[in-house]
Amino acid sequence: NDYYQTNTQGHLIIGGVDALELAKKFGTPLVVYDVQKIKRQFQAFQNAFEKEQVDYAISYASKAFATMAIYQVINKLGGHIDVVSGGELFTALKAGFPAAKISFHGNNKTPDELLMAVQNHVGVIILDNFTEIKLLKRILKQTNTRVQVMLRVTPGVSAHTHEYDQTGQEDSKFGFDIRSGQAEQAFLQVKANPQMELIGLHAHIGSQILAAEGFKLEVEKLLKLVNDWKQKYDYQPRVLNLGGGFGIRYTAQDDTLTAQTFISQIVQKVKKCAQASHLKMPAIWIEPGRSIVGEAGYNLYTIGARKEVPGLLPYVAVDGGMGDNIRPALYQAEYEAVLAEKPHAEPVETVRLAGRYCESGDIIINKLALPKSKPGDVIAVLATGAYGYSMAANYNRVPRPAVVFAENGQAQVVVTRETYADIVSHDRFYQMEG
Ligand code: LLP
Questions:
Q1: Predicted interface score ipTM higher than 0.95
Q2: CA of 315 to the centre of ligand 1 (A)
Q3: Of the candidates 243, 268, 290, which is a domain's last residue?
């Protein structure tokens, strides 16, 4: 099983470090990343593009996990990133990430955020709606700057995935609709503005996509649009940004394509469509988030209370839950978990792995086969690296966990554990009368 590795004592290791030692040294709940796994995933996408001999950029969708440390790693690998807020942009710049390789996304970027992006010279602003075009126009005029932009269009493709994640269909809060002519209208507005350089088109069809069909359909629709604009306006985009959404393996049942297969199928489709319409081959950009960091992340918890329910599966509770991983509660997302001390031990029972938050829905895993376990045991939930820590919250005023990067047998804290002092740091006494 390539999900996890063990050392000679049979303990789970992450980045070459014993998970029991990580738990002991840094406490639980703890988020741990195997940095080599992140690098290997990124390089798998790079190698796939190199093989196809096309211009490309891999723009890590940092909403999946956005901290200074991950921005450093992606920068070291030569990647681009996308950010969707002033907070992500601030973090990336603080980490020394080159502004020129940042794309700024979002369906409701505020005036302040757009100004921040322009003043820091981000590489591309991905325009999402007409309000934003107007707003950016004003900011560019005021600051007397020029910026590269892309148009986010909705191609009317919704990849087969969980409904919360569908963003490519026509009834979407994101992007300009192609069919109704919004995209063309936006194109004309942008082309008329000399302070905006339209470098390409963007679309994103969904998340946790397990097959290439949706992407191929997306490519067809986008290149049809490109061909229309070439005929009508003699315009051809330099970049085709196809978004992210490449699926990962959360459990042994999940079956997804490799980076290699996704990319070769997508690129070949672009080549074919471009050739058929005599279009210049554009550079292909992708925005993988989950597939870069998802399988590299582990959430370590300590087992505490156990509750039997006659006739039903027992609850085994841990010291974390929906505060550090909301995905099971929000999307019915499924995960696997193993005991850090003996991941290969034969299961003896099936339990419900419960979180510690005051909400019945805070169940991390509904059906987990486990060897004999006891309070104090460390359990590792696998493949938690995407949208786990990045969606973490302080519900019940539980401090958010620390994040550790492990690589070659070394572990480093890259986000410290929140303290109770942090929890009240923004609270102010109410000055009551009487
Ligand atoms: N590009 C755009 C424009 C996006 O909207 C997204 C994700 C991505 C790239 C990255 O998609 P990925 O490769 O990570 O699938 N919180 C949800 C996922 C929300 C995804 C939103 N957009 C979850 O936990 O499943």
A1: yes
A2: 31
A3: 290
